[in-house]
Amino acid sequence: MKKVLIITYYWPPAGGPGVQRWLKFVKYLRHFGVEPVVYAPENPSYPIIDKSFESEIPDGVKVIKKKIFEPYSIAGLFSKKETETISSGIISKEENQSAMQKAMLYIRGNFFIPDARNFWVKPSVSFLREELKNGDYDAIITTGPPHSLHLIGLKLKEELGINWVADFRDPWTRIGYHEKLKLTDSSRKKHEELEKSVLNTADHIITTSFTTRDEFNSKTSKPVTVITNGFDAEISREEPENDKFELAHIGSLLSERNPAQLWKAIGELIQENKEFANNFRLRLAGKISEAVLDIISENAIQPYLENEGYVSHAKALELQRSASVLLLIEIDSEETKGIIPGKLFEYLAAKRPILAIGPENWDVERIITRTGAGEMYNYGDINGIKSYILRQFQKYQQKDLLSNSHNIADYHRKTLTEKLANLIKNL
């Protein structure tokens, strides 16, 4: 059996999508002849906690932990709200940023390269050097963000020559928030140099999207493989039971993940169609920015809103399956067309129609088209968005909302883990 060391920042009790990818890989790797060992921080600063994930760690899996110096814990002494906001990725537009947030973004971008977990690199390399020498490992895997973890892999590769796989859940220099970090020219160059070193030193690179794969293929000759995120639940076979026609978004809505035409379309349908208004509900679950809530109010949707706040993963799955239509929204920019939200795959398993709104040539459209799970629109297409919602409302009235999607099983976590295990065995 192959043995791998997985170096990750996010591990239970962390909540959110960042923890799920490698928790689920660890869950299934033994099925395919790979023994996982996990290395994670002992004292992390997680923006979201979900203790329900702890029960999913397989029995007997070795988890090594080491303390980390967390700048966010110190920053929180000065402004806890700003610290939590930045660490969770909710960054206001330039004109709406407070002086404190502007200062913290500048410090984060230029003094902590590639990110605020860079203080973990040197002590981790020293600590893991001995673990790897004595533990008979076949490979190491680093997963980012935070991309500083790839620097741990880089140093260990250079020192020990061990097989190394670098997993990118998000891009590095082209990640959506990178331009908001107020980078100086020298800081930007440093990010690019570090990214280049990682891409050209790792034995194999994994991405979660096709766009990031293509980007990395233009930067390195090393093999790059797409292994998307997935779902780990039974595929729903039942019509949703709900007293309302419910549009639901499960997950964070950032300030810029906020399609004005969607909210306008809903507001118009409420005003124009009395039957729709009497049966409609909008449900949001997750961290929601004030900018999103403001525009919902401006379009007179507030009376129809159920704002759940953050919910456990188990509750999130429940809400997905009780919805009539599931909303999938991404920031409308060139940098985000390669982001495939993890919730997409759970949406697929829920078998509810998906209304996706995002940038042109978004990778999500490729998956939705392949599975027939819904439709994708650009931000400005109010007529298309409005027409789709109305068609689904008519299906709701006919009790015909179970999606006729196909090829869903390809995105089960176990199927994806088999692909990962074969990659490891072929290093």
UniProtKB/TrEMBL annotation:
Signal peptide: none
Taxonomic source organism: Christiangramia crocea
GO molecular function: glycosyltransferase activity
Stated name of the protein: Glycosyltransferase family 4 protein
Domain Glycosyltransferase subfamily 4-like N-terminal intervals: 107-234
Phylogenetic placement of the source organism: Bacteria, Pseudomonadati, Bacteroidota, Flavobacteriia, Flavobacteriales
